[in-house]
Write a structure and sequence with these properties.
This protein has 177 residues and is α+β, with helices and mostly antiparallel strands. It has helices at residues 39-53, 101-111, 120-128, 136-148, and strands spanning 2-7, 25-30, 58-61, 81-84, 89-92, 95-97, 118-119, 155-158, 162-165, 171-174.
Length: 177
Amino acid sequence: MSVVAIPTRRHPGVRPSARPRTGPTLTITLDLVPGPLSPRLARLVQLLGELAESGEGQLRAVEDAASGPRPAPRPAEADHVRILAGSRMVRQGDRVIALTRIEYELLLFLAERPRRVFTRLQLLSSVWGYEHAVARTVDVHVRRLRAKLAGSEVVTTVYGVGYRLADEAPISVDHSS
């Protein structure tokens, strides 16, 4: 792994304040696999090294092999939404969320396709199974779904386009139950 910390530069002619402030720091962590670097990754490491040599930061290698891979942070259990696909149930923490068929299908569809934006017509086609309904029907179901999952940011609006699963959505899909 490589870590780069780049503090902000002081501009000449600016007098220091009464108490020293630490500037913003950018830290980049790269998990490198054994073997040769890809050309793009080698170029990135080279550019970071050039920044460090110019005095705009520092480049240091951190050996963290003993700790192994870090587990992803788990969201708070009270807000975590679990979709139990086998039983078609949705749980938020300890409580069961009663969803209509369409709300359940919409949530499952978005949860299985994170980081993708879907237009209202794409959602009508994929979730409802037809496109000849009013596109604002999707808005109504998203609003109801958000109300039922209060406290969990699950669905994000991409203005002028449609909807997608939120990046930090505390959600998991369990296909085994």
